[in-house]
Amino acid sequence: MRLIVRSLFSALFSLCVFGLAHAAQVKSVTNDYHIDAAEPGIKLFVRQKMAEGNTQFTDDNIVLFIHGATAPSTCDFDLGFKDYSWADWMIDRGYVVYMFDKRNYGYSSREKAMEEPPARNKPVSRSYLVIRDIGAVVDHIRAKHKVQKVILIGWSWGAMTGGYYTSLHSDKVKKLVMYAPAYALPVHTNLGPGSGLQNKRKPYEFNYGLGAYRLASLAANTARWDGEIPVNDKLQYREAGVAEAFWAECLATDPTSNTRNPPSLRAPNGVLEDTFMQATGRRIWNASSIYVPTLVIAGEYDTWSFPEDRDSLLRDLTNAPAKKHVLIRDSSHFTLFEKPRFEFFSEIEKFLRE
Q: Which residues does 352 contact at the CB level (< 8 Å), separation at least 6?
């Protein structure tokens, strides 16, 4: 009954609050290009989207999206399926939107280890390296638009690396949104002790047999998504076709995806090593070093970000001048592609306007 009522409310909420905005969408312009990373030889893919003719650039209206562990930025935040582009939703509300691919993801540079069999190398794209990528993009935006700060919105590992970056560079961040962060739960059932990330012979050692990267398929991604939806009819939570559209756009960012059957995306394993450390009580950064207003937000049934993760994160945000926690009911780790997505987007925008 709660889900039925919730669905009716979400439909009415979307129609009343967002129907007019969608009917009067602004015309946007997209600019795709590459910038230099902090290290020589690495090129980072950047996408900028904004309203056509916009000339207003301030600390309050520039957003940088940070992608997560598996998929790169464009399929996450600018999905070309119906009205599922979060970037377009933000542009309609006056924001200038940036997104980028971390090293070894999407359209950014891939190192040699990504071209070899995974077992030949240890995990690539460790967090201490990708926060340098975040820094390169933040500094690029600041110089390009002559602003002091940008807004960071990170999803999943993007929330973790966004928090890590902000803990070192709060002076360059206006506000931080952490969507579905894992943080410091020492008994995380999916990422810590007893999971596939653990060396079974040495319980607190990462399973380096996983290698430099993993292969992710539509079937595996959808199975994970389905596993978080607590009803048999998955269409109660997500629209038909969105999972397939999302994955098709993700696969298009990897030129090798169609050389495998079934097609699959290469995803670096540095995130898994670092997250395993976090999920076995060994933090690689601490939220007490964040000095900007911070929103922590997640879906009710998320299994990457547990309530205990977010509770400890909120406890550690001792120096944030404002902190807020929002739970989106009847949604999963993939809230941005599910039926409550407009409520989710609205909660984030409300925080940015406060």
A: 60, 63, 151, 175, 177
N-to-C CA span, the chain: 34
Closest CA to 307 of 152, 225, 188: 188
Which residues neighbour 25 within 8 Å (Cβ) at sequence distance 6 or greater?
88, 92
Helices (H), the chain: 2-13, 19-23, 73-77, 86-92, 127-145, 157-168, 218-228, 242-251, 270-278, 307-316, 341-353
Cβ count within 10 A of residue 102:
31
Task: Measure the CA–CA gap between 327 and 113, rounded to whole angstroms.
Answer: 39
Task: Summarize pLDDT for 123-175 with one digit per residue, the tens.
Answer: 999 999 999 999 999 999 999 999 999 999 999 999 999 999 999 999 999 99
Q: Which residue's entry shows tokens 């902090």?
A: 38
Q: What is the pLDDT of residues 76-88, one digit of tens each?
A: 999 999 999 999 9
- Give the predicted TM-score (pTM) of the model: 0.93
Type of residue at 138? V
- Per-state percent for the chain, helix, strand, coil, to nearest 5: 40, 20, 40
Q: Rounded to the nearest 5 degrees, what angle is found at the Cα of 125, between the Cα atoms of 101 and 50?
A: 15
- Do the beta carbons of residue 129 and residue 103 sit within 8 Å? yes
